[in-house]
Specification:
Layout lengths: L30 H27 L8 H31 L2 H24 L11
Helix pairs in contact: 2-3
Length: 133
């Protein structure tokens, strides 16, 4: 017994080998029918593209990865400020033999620089409108 596809119009998949009705024959459609099909497809594609662009602009979990990228940028700037401060402090301590003091002072300065970078990054730009509620 041949396998039948539920919604297939193909004569091979539906088990009707050798049988084709008029609408399944490739040359049976007029140019006007082809043009109407192309126009319907074009309309559907335009609606789909409009929906895709609206979905990309919408905030939320289905939107773009812009928020995650900004979060990683802010976190890396904060960590880099602390790491650079610690490295400078360790270098100063190694140079002058003041082991804990240079490291502590420059770690605190690096922390302050990291916080300042975070504040600068999250502050709205002058040319950017404030977010709507």
């Amino acid at each position: 017994m041949p396998m039948r596809a539920a919604s297939s119009g193909s004569p091979v998949l539906s088990g009707r080998i050798g049988e084709m009705d008029e609408r399944e024959k490739p040359d049976s459609r007029s140019e006007a029918e082809w043009a109407a099909d192309r126009e319907r497809l074009r309309t559907r594609l335009d609606r789909f593209k409009a929906g895709q662009s609206a979905m990309e602009d919408a905030p939320g979990p289905g939107g773009s990865m812009k928020g995650m990228a900004q979060g990683f940028k802010i976190a890396s700037e904060f960590i880099a400020g602390i790491a650079v401060g610690g490295a400078i402090g360790w270098g100063v301590d190694s140079l002058f033999g003041t082991l804990p003091f240079g490291l502590v002072i420059f770690l605190l300065l690096g922390f302050a620089a990291g916080v300042l970078n975070v504040v600068r990054s999250t502050r709205p730009k002058a040319d950017e409108p404030p977010p709507s509620p």
